[in-house]
Amino acid sequence: MEEKRGLTIKDLLIRLILIIIFIFLLIWLFPMPDLKPLNNQIFADNIDRMKDVAKSYYTLERLPKNINESKKMTLREMIDNKLILPLTDSNGKYCSEDDSYVEITKLENEYIIKVNLSCSDKQDYIKEHYGCYDICSDTCKLLETTSKSGYASDITRKKTTLKPGKVTTKKTGKIYEYQFVKNECSEKFDKYVCDSGYYLVGSGNDYECIKNGSKVESYPAEEKTVEVSSTDTKEADVVVDSSTEFKDASCRYDYLTSTIDAGYKKTIYNAEKTVTTQKVTADKVTTYDVKGAEKTTVKASYTYVQNYDIINADKYATGYKWTYVSTVIDRSPSLGYVNDDEKLVLIHQWQELVCESSQACTSTVTYYKYYKYRKQATGYEYSCAAYPNYELYGTDKCRKATTKTKQCPDSSYKDTGSGCEKVTYSCSKYGSEYKSDGKGSCTKTITSYKCPSGTKETSDPKYCNKEGVITYTCPPGTNKINETQCAKYDYYCPDNTSTKEYKLNGTKCTVKTKVKVCSCDKYPGSVQTSDKLHCAITNSSTRYSCSKYPGYTQDGNKCTKTVVTKKTILSCEKHKGTTLDGKNCIKTVNTSDSKKANKSYKTVCETKYKWSTKTSIEGWTYTGKKRLVN
Q1: pLDDT class of 104 with cuts at 50, 70, 90
Q2: Which residues contact residue 452 at a Cβ distance below 8 angstroms, ignoring those fewer than 6 apart?
Q3: In DSSP terms, which residues pair with 527 in a beta bridge?
Q4: Residue 486 burial by CB count (10 A; 0-12/13-18/19+): exposed, middle or buried?
Q5: Which pLDDT belongs to residue 168?
């Protein structure tokens, strides 16, 4: 009977090769579908969603009012206001909520809406033009335009179409006049002004600009030989003298002082009622007048900045010294130590009296005073030797040049890909009271005041009077305990005894207890001996000596010697009123310059209205109002 054999390595390799060939045939016969159209469709759907939200949000009252004025809303603001849900791209990632936005701009006869979408797979934008027919229906527009004049029903019946600047009507046999408006501006004299550095003087129509200046006159200085005294200074030697002296300790009766709460007696009084007029602060009301700013686009070229890789340099100490850190007081005489970084040194010891009872203070305790020092470096140096291609930068950094970065002159410029560009806004045409917000608007802040309810106005608009205010006042020496009552507290202490004395101090009693005490208080800095009868006083004095510097005179902790030498100097004695500057003697002489002042003009604008039977007038804008004249 034939035995059955298992799979060999050769059989396994053949089967593996056949499987790989089969997979390649499947890929060749059935290639992956092109997903690009699907990705583009997802991006287009997201833009349409943002556009639809913007059209529904920007109703008539939210649209820009002035020509070239824009309003912008980011995707984040849409999401925060619950106008739209977060948008995802073809990769399943959320689109940028700050770089994606909708911006609407008012033109002369229409609006432009720009929708910008930034996602991980694509970034692009669309623009769409629309007019009144995109914002509301014709009937809605007609009713809004004519409701104020009282002709709404008549216009609706005749199906009159009104557009800014032009009127068209069907013939009805009636004659109407239409109202038009326009702004006329002219330059009018404002004031006289001067160039920078000049100040204005004069009156009436005669003004001049004056500028005061100065000029410098210079003369060669004269050489002069003088004797110059200099002082050579050296540090004097420090000499310390010390000795110990013993004094009798003083034993006396003294007092231990403590504090206890005083007793008291409480008396109730009625508070005094007073009706007054109280001055209160008026409510501040702030309103704003907003106008469109003048927009200017500024272009600039790129600048290139050298980048560096910066690391910390290695720090090496060049010397050390011991520096005082703190004082330690303890009862142990063996705390002193010295190591590589710090040391504790015994400086002084003394004894203090311990009172074991209220009647006698006879035992003493010895205390030891230590100074703690810490080793500190007196100087450092830094090195970059351990880092190849790095050089020392500043004091403690190492740097190595890397790449160069292309950038705009400053953060106010935006990189357009081919250069730098920034937009600036100006409010100068409206006067100094209007401030730019940097986004296209000029705002004037108007402040007024309003009195709260129940108060009356005063001569000062910032304050109001509130009448009939009831207050309660306590008599002197009493404290208020509720709205209408006051209390007075009379404090007292216990009677004195043969060993205790009491003294009232506010709400406390100071208690003085008589005890017997032996001490060295009259000898400050002394140490009481073990027999309690003597005080040891260590006297030390420091003096300075110049004995090792012959010819030098002691001056405090210095040794000085005067040396006289001859020296040639420059002098300005021949040129009165001058001062020495290098090798010249100079002085400043005042000068003056004047010229005619310049006239400054300002722009004054006036709004004019006109009624006409014509449906359009060149240079005039139709207001939407009309009246029947026949």
Answers
A1: very high
A2: 280, 282, 283, 464
A3: 536
A4: buried
A5: 43
Residue 546 tokens read as 């110049």
How many other β-carbons are positioned within 10 Å of the β-carbon of residue 405? Answer: 11
375 three-state secondary structure: strand
Tokens 């506010």 belong to residue: 506
- Alpha-carbon span 541 to 244, nearest angstrom: 12
C-alpha torsion sign, points 527, 533, 537, 538: negative
| Residue closest to 295 by CA, chosen among 398, 390, 437, 164 | 437
State the DSSP string of 131-162. -HHHHS-HHHHHHHHHTTTT-HHHHHHHT-EE
Q: Give Cβ neighbours of residue 279 (< 8 Å, ≥ 6 apart).
A: 458, 463, 464, 465, 466
Return d(Cα 573, Cα 221) in angstroms, integer.
9
SS3 content of the chain, % helix, strand, coil (to 5): 10, 55, 30
pLDDT at 185: 78
Please compute the mean of the pLDDT values over residues 555-574 and round it to a whole number: 81
Bridge partners for 514 per DSSP: 255
The pLDDT of residue 390 is 92
CA distances from 132 to 167, 180, 406 (A): 15, 19, 46
Structure tokens at 50: 């943002």
- How crowded is residue 447: how many other Cβ atoms within 10 Å of its Cβ? 8
According to DSSP, the β-strands at 553-555 and 558-571 are: antiparallel
Distance CA 303, CA 412 (A): 14
Distance CA 166, CA 148 (A): 19
- Quickly list DSSP for 52-114: HHHHHH--GGGS--STT-EEEEEHHHHHHTTSSPPPB-TTSPBPPTTT-EEEEEE-SS-EEEE
What does each C-alpha distance from 208 to 459, 566, 594, 600 come to in angstroms? 43, 58, 7, 14
Quote the pLDDT of residue 464.
92
Read off the amino acid at residue 154.
D
CA dihedral over 166, 169, 171, 174, signed as positive or negative: negative
* HSE, side-chain direction, 13 A CA sphere, residue 494: 11
> Own/partner pairs for 274-279, CB < 8 Å, 24+ apart?
274/470, 274/471, 274/472, 274/473, 275/468, 275/469, 275/470, 276/469, 276/471, 277/465, 277/466, 277/467, 277/468, 277/469, 278/465, 278/466, 278/469, 279/458, 279/463, 279/464, 279/465, 279/466
Closest CA to 557 of 233, 232, 229, 231: 233
| Residue 143 clears pLDDT 70, i.e. is over it | no
Helix (H) or strand (E) holding 28: helix 9-29
- What distance in Å separates the CA atoms of residue 236 and residue 545, rounded to the nearest whole number? 6
- 165-209 pLDDT, tens digit per residue, is 444 444 456 788 888 888 877 777 778 788 877 877 777 667 788
Which of 138, 431, 491, 394 minimizes the C-alpha distance to 291?
A: 431
- Residue 509 has what pLDDT? 92
**3-class SS string, 283-301:** EEEEEEEEEECEEEEEEEC
pLDDT tens digit string along 462-518?
A: 899 888 788 888 888 788 878 788 988 888 898 888 888 888 888 899 988 877 677
- Whether the CB-CB separation of 165 and 109 falls below 8 Å is answered with yes
* Domain positions in the chain: 36-135, 140-188+603-628
